[in-house]
Amino acid sequence: MTQQTAAHVPDEHTRIDLSGKRAIVTGGTRGIGLAIVRRLARAGATVVAAARKEAGPLPEAATYIAADLATAGGVADLAARALDRLGGVDIIVNNAAATAPHLGGVLDIPDEDWLRNLEINFMAGVRLNAALLPHMYGQASGAIVHLSSGVTQSPPPTMLHYAASKAAVATYARGLATEAGPRGVRVNVVTPGNTATPGADEIREALAALGTASAEAGTTFIPMGRIGQPEDVAEAVVFLVSEAAPWITGSELVVDGGQLNVA
């Protein structure tokens, strides 16, 4: 039986200071996104949390903007409203994601699901960056983090549409980092492993109900002895957007309790 240990939650003495920074987090009202919003706010940033539905509760330093990130118009509207709300932008966290497993395998995935995964998981970030990078370039500073996924390391056929869209994120971020670096903007990727979030829990339960995998199977080969928590991923994101990581760009930080090393 896998030993379960609690996630580390940093206390007030964790010295990452984002005072005065303005941040946008997509998919920021639940799961990993909500944890990132809360951690950014605790570090002193003012945050816009964007998502289709409001959840929360959000910290006092964060506000919610409803956004349809599956369309170009929805992303453009978010960018305009966020800039108006914040007065500028220093941090972008492209976290929004959506998918559903297709238990019949690759040939069971219809075109519309391939395209929907690309629109939300990949193009939403591309479009938001395109709208906001001119402001970052103008101030010669900024930090962008994209959230990928551990499924890209060993993509299951039932989730290949999701894995492919998330793999595209990592390739795009490396290329963008090359262009943005000389202009003062850093671009990195955080790749979470098996993490307890509402969306991931739903997928695990669906697979377990059909006997594809047990709900606990993902923890079997995690050296750290537990499934990840959203706060684990949030710590990595906040580190990468802070002055603690001034010479890190074009990198992918895997946050998976060591699972990739033994997979």
UniProtKB/TrEMBL annotation:
**Could you give a GO molecular-function term held by this entry?**
oxidoreductase activity, acting on the CH-OH group of donors, NAD or NADP as acceptor
Q: What family does this belong to?
A: Belongs to the short-chain dehydrogenases/reductases (SDR) family.
Q: Which residues form the Ketoreductase domain?
A: 21-193
Pfam families per record: adh_short_C2
Entry keywords, A to Z: Oxidoreductase
Read off the InterPro entries from this record. KR_dom (IPR057326), NAD(P)-bd_dom_sf (IPR036291), Sc_DH/Rdtase_CS (IPR020904), SDR_fam (IPR002347)
Query: What NCBIfam families does the record point to?
Result: PRK06523.1
- Its name, as the record gives it, is NAD(P)-dependent dehydrogenase, short-chain alcohol dehydrogenase family
